[in-house]
Amino acid sequence: MLSSRSDRLVRFVAATAGLLVLATASPLAGQDFTNIVSSEFSMSGAAATLDLELAGGRTLQLGLRDGGVFIDGARVGDAARGSPLDRQWRDLLTRAMDAAPDELPQILFEWSAEGDAGARLDSALDAALLPGADGLQVPAVPAAPAAPNSDSMDRLVDRITELQREVNRLEARSERGTVERRGSGRGPFHYIGEGLAGIFSIVVAYAVLFALGFAVIFFGGRKYIEGVADTARHATGRSFLVGLAAAFLVVPAFVLGIIALVISVIGIPGLLVWVPGFPVAVLLAALLGYLGVAHAAGEAFAERRFYVTDWFQRGNSYYFLLTGLGVLVALFLASMVVFMAGPWLRAISGILMFLGVVSTIAFVTIGFGAVLISRGGKQPIRSSGAEQDLFTEEAGV
Q: Is the model's pTM score more than 0.90?
């Protein structure tokens, strides 16, 4: 009898101890939580946030972003990307997203994390989920001053890098667009169109120069053009050297003239004539020299083409000027004609254009020197035995 009573006492003590152990091991069994009306989860590479709407109209915003821990918008600590707290928090959000609505409060309440920032997140969750904790608030901890600056610098560097990539992308797109536009416009008709446009411009310049020469001859300037032409033909080297030297002395002479007029008695009235008149005189001398060289080129061309009788019948200043200008611009015309053949002969076209520019500079220099030597065509230099004008042109002019 005593033994049976002892056995029953032992079984009662064991059952009571088991119940105490179960109660200690499962403190949340039967725990009532505040009802969660809605929950919103957001996870990305830069942020992981949780927004809760609780019964009674309360809300709670928790999250990790920009290297910090935030509770209801207030920064309460630091948590870098990949830190233990960041991993634990993201693991909690992952499990919470997959949980059923009735299991969500239990999962959030049971979560805990190490560190001061993790403890504040845990406390905020517990305070929100436990009934009767409406007035419980988690104080925000001011962040260390160096952390925001560091985060700001990191964001600034990231933004600059992003802008640099955008600029490089836009530049690459612009270069591709330029290449495409260039490539689309370089068809055969493109070269023909540019060549015809170049030929037309050369023809217009040729017509303008001939019109100027025609006007000079028609209004009595024939002897001046012929004087410059004779000097350019019979003293070519001398004319070139004089013209080259004069080209270098034009600017010093202009400046010295201004200084001389400033300190002279004439003064301001002389400057009013010198300042605009000197450049105009230089341009007119260069133009007269170029027309004289064209006249000389026309004479040389006529000597090779006509017999002696035809020379007197068909040779006149208009004809010499017309053919001479054609000789002087022949290289430019040839360059444009070759250009129309396409990109295969572009090098030859460039060489012809270069030779045309160089020859034009040489012709202007020779003509300018011939104008200075012949005193504007009044005192021409002719070869020996040719002092008399062989081409009276009584019928031609």
A: no
